[in-house]
Automatic annotation (TrEMBL), chain A:
<dbReference type="InterPro" id="IPR045073">
    <property type="entry name" value="Omega/Tau-like"/>
</dbReference>
<dbReference type="GO" id="GO:0005829">
    <property type="term" value="C:cytosol"/>
</dbReference>
<comment type="similarity">
    <text>Belongs to the GST superfamily. Tau family.</text>
</comment>
<dbReference type="GO" id="GO:0006749">
    <property type="term" value="P:glutathione metabolic process"/>
</dbReference>
<dbReference type="InterPro" id="IPR010987">
    <property type="entry name" value="Glutathione-S-Trfase_C-like"/>
</dbReference>
<keyword id="KW-0808">Transferase</keyword>
<dbReference type="GO" id="GO:0004364">
    <property type="term" value="F:glutathione transferase activity"/>
</dbReference>
<protein>
    <recommendedName>
        <fullName>Glutathione S-transferase</fullName>
        <ecNumber>2.5.1.18</ecNumber>
    </recommendedName>
</protein>
<dbReference type="InterPro" id="IPR004045">
    <property type="entry name" value="Glutathione_S-Trfase_N"/>
</dbReference>
Automatic annotation (TrEMBL), chain B:
<dbReference type="InterPro" id="IPR036249">
    <property type="entry name" value="Thioredoxin-like_sf"/>
</dbReference>
<dbReference type="GO" id="GO:0004364">
    <property type="term" value="F:glutathione transferase activity"/>
</dbReference>
<dbReference type="InterPro" id="IPR040079">
    <property type="entry name" value="Glutathione_S-Trfase"/>
</dbReference>
<dbReference type="InterPro" id="IPR045074">
    <property type="entry name" value="GST_C_Tau"/>
</dbReference>
<dbReference type="InterPro" id="IPR004045">
    <property type="entry name" value="Glutathione_S-Trfase_N"/>
</dbReference>
<dbReference type="Pfam" id="PF00043">
    <property type="entry name" value="GST_C"/>
</dbReference>
<dbReference type="InterPro" id="IPR004046">
    <property type="entry name" value="GST_C"/>
</dbReference>
<keyword id="KW-0216">Detoxification</keyword>
<dbReference type="InterPro" id="IPR045073">
    <property type="entry name" value="Omega/Tau-like"/>
</dbReference>
Amino acid sequence: MANKEKDVKLLGFWASPFSRRVEMALKLKGVSYEYLEQDIVDKSALLLELNPVFKKVPVLVHNGKILAESHLILEYIDQTWKSNPILPQDPYEKAMARFWAKFVDEQVGPVCFKSVVKAEKGIEIAIEEAQELITFLEKELTGKDFFGGKTIGFLDLVAGSMIPFCLARSWEGMEIDMIPEEKFPELNRWIRNLNDIEVVSECIPHREKQIEHMMKVVERIKLA
Amino acid sequence: MASDEVKVIGAWASPFVMRPRIALNLKSVSYEFLQETFGSKSELLLKSNPVHKKIPVLIHADKPVCESNIIVEYVDETWSTSGPSMLPSNPYDRAIARFWAAYIDEKWFPSLKSILQAEGEEEKKAVLAQVEEGTALLEKAFIDCSKGKPFFNGEHVGYLDIAFGCFLGWLRVTELAAGHKVLDEAKTPSLSKWAEQFCNDPAVKPVMPDTATLAEFAKKIFAKPAA
């Protein structure tokens, strides 16, 4: 049964990992949607109307129902379109996926980006603290092609949109070798695996543009 | 073979710890409560939650689950045949319940906490205004979610009731300290009624600390020098 494009709309921002992961999920499920690119600095009336609480992307609109917050949107997509499940069935595995996804966005994101930019205790310590967190994820990947096992799942979408295609671009721009192969073999293998997945490679921002964008964010953080 | 035993590592005063305890009570699951000493972290806690080193931690058949709202969903899904569901079955309504729980943790509770830490009347007034704005949003959310029933989850206490209700003790302590009511019949009539019903629920009553005891505890912890 074909999904009418107009039934699903996504308000997003090209450089946002939060918005990209929703696109990956929709593509994975074969859901067609209308994409509405947003200016996250000069926010549109539509964005403010649809997400007055957080005023952020992504926002998904499905048959008039409005959803915000990327993790919730991913779970909603998983429950609404049943092909290619994103979350595991087992309650414990599900809890683990949710736990690590929260960890990626709330800890890894800030510590491996903003804290590194600010390097309040010096760059070496900032990198060390960032790598400490990333090591948890390295351990989770041991013996697996993806966090989701043989196929990509919830945590792959969250961590995949965040780490290789967003944070890693900022490390590249700042000339920091954050995840060298010898220290993070599992993570590097996972990134190579992700690049082979069409749904992922179709939904990642253009590499140079993303580096340029992240470096502008770095400047803003430094000036703040 | 790992036993099916359930343990919760926590502390009596923590609203986050209340969440899994209420959930387990709703599902009539007995558990061992392992109280942490304030100011120190046990070996078991550090081993079970090496990432955050925080309470609550649920240990089920020797497997730890961390993060209070994630634990509540785990309890709901694991003991799904026992007691009513804590989240709506409709995916959209589930997403809405989770949305408000996220809002409460990311915006509402941090602003409530900062009232107690505010220096000077001006700052206190500004933060109070923020909390009231948030509470007004939650009043509306309650009306939308409850659809005329006593709880956010409908007939029975559920995920969002727990996510918000766990803060009622601290809310009362803050109101006393600030000399200003945030939740009351005039400003938030639906939430006021809900709060009373929530606190009287048999799954909640045994784990909700009384305001006076909590106020004493608050004096102690806020008197400590900043870490």
